[in-house]
Amino acid sequence: MLNRRNFLTAAVGVAAATGLAACAKEDGGSSGSSGGGSKAITLGFSQVGSESGWRSANSDSVKSAAKEAGYTLKFSDAQQKQENQISAIRNYIAQKVDVIAFSPVVVTGWDAVLKEAKAAKIPVVLTDRSVETSDDSLYVTLVGSDFTDEGRRAAKILEKVLEKAGHKGPVKIAQLEGTTGAAPAIERAKGFKEVMDADHADDWKIVVSQTGDFTRAGGKQVMAAFLQSNPDIDVLFAHNDDMGIGAIQAIEAAGKKPGKDILIVTVDGVKDGFVAMSEGKINAIVECNPLLGPQLMEVVKKVKDGETVERWIKTKESDFMQDQAKDALPTRKY
Description:
The chain is of the alpha/beta class. It folds into 2 domains: 42-144 and 290-315, 3-Layer(aba) Sandwich (Rossmann fold), CATH 3.40.50.2300; 147-288, Response regulator (Rossmann fold, 3-Layer(aba) Sandwich), CATH 3.40.50.
């Protein structure tokens, strides 16, 4: 029987003037006063999409924090398409919002629209994901996690998972990557490989690796293909919980036991991930906190007031993981 205290400790320790393009969706956000009779801040926010439980929690956090802060929020869902985000940002520029924030679908291809925002004197804040630009002054700061370190932590916790499982000899690893070109996919893979190459060059090998696009359906489809081409996989490293949960379905359909026949390490820490871990189907989860809303609103206020902010503001962690664990297992006895 899983001990509640140990469960929480492990989770925290290892473990976020024109219209838009027709296929993008925009919501009118909350509006209110920022206090003292001053004009409310208007924030234009472009979200990647709603591809996962993490992303849904992230969107909810931004919306609720904006309402709490009394900001007018203009929110758009890019449906995982960069062209939709670029259209949304240009729309925010035309509307002369005070600050633009967005979580970029991919790393590259932003210079032109960011230069337009700079020319309009509208500061830009990145959330969750980074970008590569020719000019670092095109955005003010990034509010998000260290994805490379998450990859490293995934590799280090896999060492413990393998030891606990009593696995001996070579380790054949399948990797479910996030969206191609997205910062978390690039950096989590990089961090994992750093540890693997440094400490396990002789016994660990990634035998197959492919994007599941951060979705549950993608994880299931790609894992099914992995099992066809590599039926002797020992370990799955999934770049997020949702792909890992989809992979579990494919593993079970193939007559194998997830968490036993194939050891599974994922990243995020959403409720469904904790449920799967409590059932022994996921062996470990590395934390990535989606609740960026309050931190983002603090940064937006500072940026609007002309205050200096750090170039990278790291996500607050730990409390989120404990809350998710409690939420996932409200009636379980330990």
